[in-house]
Design brief:
Layout: E1 2-5, E2 14-17, E3 27-36, H1 39-46, E4 62-66, E5 72-75, E6 78-80, E7 100-101, E8 113-117, E9 122-123, H2 130-133, H3 139-149, E10 155-159, H4 163-174, E11 178-183, H5 188-196, E12 199-204, E13 213-218, H6 225-231, E14 233-241, E15 262-265, H7 271-280, E16 290-294, H8 298-307, E17 313-317
Parallel strand pairs: 10-11, 10-13, 11-12, 13-14, 14-15, 16-17
Antiparallel strand pairs: 1-2, 3-4, 3-8, 3-17, 4-5, 5-9, 6-7
Bound molecules: zinc ion (2 copies).
Length: about 325
């Protein structure tokens, strides 16, 4: 099969070939139709997130059909958990000590076939074509978990308006929240895109929003955004850091944290997050804006993501519809 391979961190992805994988008991052989591109892929490429497998097929927002059937399934980042550690036993499998992640510890979706543990796959909601469904599987699921962690505050700031924020803003508006979007300075097109998706205000990350925020989610992997977001919060507010890797957070005065403000991270996802979000998304309905790439153009998609040239999500089209 054709596959995009990462030989080691720091190297570009290359077009290669691997044998079609053989599923073991409990695993599905999936003919990949589409795979969404995620910032975590960049962290894997750069070695900021350590993969346990090389050469590696990255990609963890897989939409495909079980080989030999028309049963459509989605494969997310969480690929396997132990089921017996203290985290797994307390409803926090996202924190499992021995978790294995798709496109990192298990070959992912930038290939014509993938195998996945059936227990961690989700049915894809009807009404979402493959390409539009792919970003739901990480941008959507992690965004959903991050939004839940903000509590129920009305005024929500989103720092970094990429794939996840473009989904979260739709969910937040549906819940009656007010959305304030922060982008790179001068990104007028990104700010316009955020307003189209329901943000009542959009500006540069360094700007103060017109009102204090009840919560903020930082999607961009930039530590300096954390004290900025904290400064924009009202008392009792929370900054949720949603990325898997971030540059260092600069020092800030305790006064900015005082007033029961908090900073927390969101790690991975549970299967429950997936079930919740994938049943919620079609009811809103969440609409994803996607830019598509051929399998051999996966590297270009990642470059475009890194450079901030995308609005919405990048999706690699592998086969089928
Ligand atoms: Zn575990
Ligand atoms: Zn992801």
């Amino acid at each position: 099969m054709r596959a995009m391979l990462l030989d080691e961190p720091g190297r570009p992805l290359r077009v290669g070939a691997l044998p079609v994988p053989a599923p073991r008991d409990g695993e599905l052989l999936i003919r990949v139709h589409a795979c969404g591109v995620c910032r975590t892929d960049l962290h894997v490429l750069d070695g900021e997130v350590r993969a346990s497998l090389h050469p590696l097929v990255p990609g963890h927002q897989i939409v495909g059909t079980v080989e030999g059937t028309d049963r459509r399934v989605g494969v997310p980042w969480l690929g396997w958990t132990c089921g017996e550690c203290r985290y797994c036993l307390s409803g926090r499998e996202n924190l499992c000590d021995r978790a294995r992640f798709t496109g990192c510890d298990i070959h992912g979706g930038y290939a014509e076939y993938a195998v996945a543990d059936e227990r961690y796959c989700f049915p894809i909601p009807d009404g979402y074509p493959d390409l539009q469904a792919a970003p739901l599987l990480c941008a959507g699921l992690i965004g959903h978990r991050a939004l839940r962690m903000t509590g129920d505050g009305e005024r929500l700031g989103l720092y970094g308006f990429g794939a996840a924020a473009h989904i979260v803003s739709q969910v937040a508006r549906h819940e009656g929240r007010r959305v304030f979007a922060f982008t790179r300075a001068g990104d007028a097109a990104g700010q316009r895109f955020a307003r189209e998706l329901g943000a009542e205000w959009a500006g540069a990350s360094e700007e103060r929003p017109p009102e204090q925020l009840d919560a903020a989610i930082v999607f961009a992997p930039l530590g300096p955004l954390v004290p900025l977001a904290l400064k924009a919060l009202s008392k009792g507010g929370t900054v949720v850091c949603a990325g898997i890797h971030m540059s260092d957070i600069p020092a800030f005065p305790y006064e900015d944290l005082w007033g029961e403000r908090s900073i927390r991270s969101v790690a991975n996802l549970t299967r429950r997050d997936g079930d919740e979000f994938l049943s919620l998304a079609p009811r809103i309905p969440v609409r994803t804006t996607v830019t598509t790439y051929a399998l051999e153009e996966t590297g270009t998609a990642l470059d475009d993501l890194r450079a901030g040239r995308l609005h919405g999500a990048a999706v690699v089209r592998v086969a089928g519809g």
